[in-house]
Write a structure and sequence with these properties.
The complex is a heterodimer. By secondary structure, chain A is mainly β. Helix content of chain A is 0%, strand content 55%. Chain A has strands spanning 5-7, 10-13, 19-24, 31-38, 42-50, 53-56, 65-71, 74-79, 88-95, 103-104, 108-112. The radius of gyration of chain A is 13 Å and the shape is globular. The mean pLDDT of chain A is 94. Chain B is mostly beta strands. Helices cover 0% and strands 60% of the residues of chain B. The radius of gyration of chain B is 13 Å and the shape is globular. The chains are: A mainly beta, B mainly beta.
Chain lengths: 113, 112
C-alpha cells in the first residue's frame, strides 16, 4: 500500500486565490481526517469523515474552508478566498474504526502571500 | 474537553543515554494512545499504538507504557542515537468519538 497520498506537497498562492488540497486515503480505511499544523497552535483537527460523510467539522475555522469526500478514495480541502494566516502544513490521515491507529500523509505546505 | 500535555518541551542528551518522554491526558475514556515521530519539514510517522486495555508496547529500542487511570503515558528510548533526533508527539483517541487529540510534542536532540 502506498499509504495516504496528499497533493500538492507545496503550494504558494496569492491572497484571495482559491486553494484546493487533495488526499487519497488508504484503501479500506473508513475514517478520513484533515489536520492543520502551525508553530503557534500545533496540530488541530479541522474535520473528519466516516464512510464519506462529514461527522465533525467544528474545527473548520471559517466559512472560507470547505471539505468534501465524494467517494471512499478521495477528499479535498478547499480554501476560498485564501489569507496569509492560512499558511500552515495541512495533513490528511486515515484510519479504520475503533482500535486502530492513524496513518498520516506527508502533508501539504501552504504559503499564502 | 480532552487536553494532552507533553513534558519536557525540549530535551538534549548525549548519544547512548536512555531517556523518558512523558505524556498526560485529562480524560481517561480513551480508545488508544499513539506515539508519533516528526522530522523537521516532514509528516508524522507512527511509532507505537497502545490500546486502552494494554499496559505497554515495545518496538526495538522503544517502549511505551500506558496508565489510563492516572492519565499518563511514557515513551522510553534506550541507547539513544543521533538519528533519534526529532519531535515526538503523543495523541489519544477519545472514547466518545474518533478524534485524535495531540500533545504539543517533545523536541529531542541526541548529540554525538
Amino acid at each position: 500500500d502506498a499509504g495516504v497520498i496528499q497533493s500538492p506537497r507545496h503550494e504558494v498562492t496569492e491572497m484571495g486565490q482559491e486553494v484546493t488540497l487533495r488526499c487519497k486515503p488508504i484503501s479500506g480505511h473508513d475514517y478520513l481526517f484533515w489536520y492543520r499544523q502551525t508553530m503557534m497552535r500545533g496540530l488541530e483537527l479541522l474535520i473528519y469523515f466516516n464512510n464519506n460523510v462529514p461527522i465533525d467539522d467544528s474545527g473548520m475555522p471559517e466559512d472560507r474552508f470547505s471539505a468534501k469526500m465524494p467517494n471512499a478514495s478521495f477528499s479535498t480541502l478547499k480554501i476560498q478566498p485564501s489569507e496569509p494566516r492560512d499558511s500552515a502544513v495541512y495533513f490528511c490521515a486515515s484510519s479504520s474504526d475503533g482500535n486502530y491507529g492513524y496513518t498520516f500523509g506527508s502533508g501539504t505546505r501552504l504559503t499564502v502571500v | 474537553k480532552q487536553e494532552v500535555t507533553q513534558i519536557p518541551a525540549a530535551l538534549s542528551v548525549p548519544e547512548g543515554e536512555n531517556l523518558v518522554l512523558n505524556c498526560s491526558f485529562t480524560d481517561s475514556a480513551i480508545y488508544n494512545l499513539q506515539w508519533f515521530r516528526q522530522d523537521p519539514g516532514k509528516g508524522l510517522t507512527s511509532l507505537l499504538l497502545i490500546q486502552s486495555s494494554q499496559r505497554e508496547q515495545t518496538s526495538g529500542r522503544l517502549n511505551a507504557s500506558l496508565d489510563k487511570s492516572s492519565g499518563r503515558s511514557t515513551l522510553y528510548i534506550a541507547a539513544s542515537q543521533p538519528g533519534d533526533s526529532a519531535t515526538y508527539l503523543c495523541a489519544v483517541r477519545a472514547g466518545g468519538g474518533n478524534k485524535l487529540t495531540f500533545g504539543t510534542g517533545t523536541q529531542l536532540k541526541v548529540e554525538l
